[in-house]
Design a protein that fits this description.
Layout lengths: L4 H8 L28 H14 L3 H17 L15
Helix pairs in contact: 2-3
């Protein structure tokens, strides 16, 4: 299909559905949040090394650790709180 420059420019200004038979499906984007976290040099080194070992980005390691922590916290009895691992005896 060959068209003139003018025809191409005219079609470029129209919605895609005006010049194709395609049906456009719109889906909502997943909710995402971004957090700034300060890590010690040791933790940062571990994070990068772990990501390299797994062959993933550091953010994927953080997501996996968050999922593991959430599952662990949800499996605790209702009268026990999930904390940072420190104990106050």
């Amino acid at each position: 299909m060959s068209m003139s420059r003018e025809e191409a420019l005219r079609l470029a200004d129209e919605p895609v559905t005006a010049w194709t038979n395609a049906e456009v499906e719109y889906e909502p984007r997943p909710v995402r949040n971004t957090f700034l976290v300060e890590l010690s040099e040791g933790d940062l080194t571990w994070l990068f090394e772990e990501a390299q070992r797994r062959g993933v980005k550091p953010s994927a390691v953080i997501q996996a650790l968050m999922s593991q922590a959430r599952r662990a916290a949800e499996s605790l009895p209702a009268d026990q709180e999930a904390g940072d691992g420190s104990r106050e005896d």
